[in-house]
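Researcher: Quick test of sequence recovery. Tokens follow.
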């Protein structure tokens, strides 16, 4: 009878160790998934901030560049045969 209880106790101890291992692996997977999600959100936020910064800071410059292109086209139309005048002077 004592051997039976000893065997049951040993089996329960092994089961407990296996369950701890399963829980640890599960916790590790959850932590990894959370880390990936945090990284994904941080990357998306950084990209968004860069886009907002780029749009806010560079948009007028891009508009001026497009204006210069349009002015250059108009000058080329009016002054046929002459070299185009650079717009950045």
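Model:
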């Amino acid at each position: 009878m004592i051997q039976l209880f000893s065997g049951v106790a040993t089996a329960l101890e092994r089961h407990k160790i296996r369950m701890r291992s399963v829980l640890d692996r599960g916790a590790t997977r959850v932590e990894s998934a959370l880390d990936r999600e945090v990284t994904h959100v941080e990357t998306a936020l950084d990209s968004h901030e860069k886009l907002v910064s780029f749009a806010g800071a560079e948009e007028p410059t891009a508009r001026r560049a497009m204006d210069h292109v349009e002015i250059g086209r108009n000058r080329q139309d009016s002054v046929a045969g002459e070299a185009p005048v650079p717009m950045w002077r």
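The radius of gyration is 35 Å.
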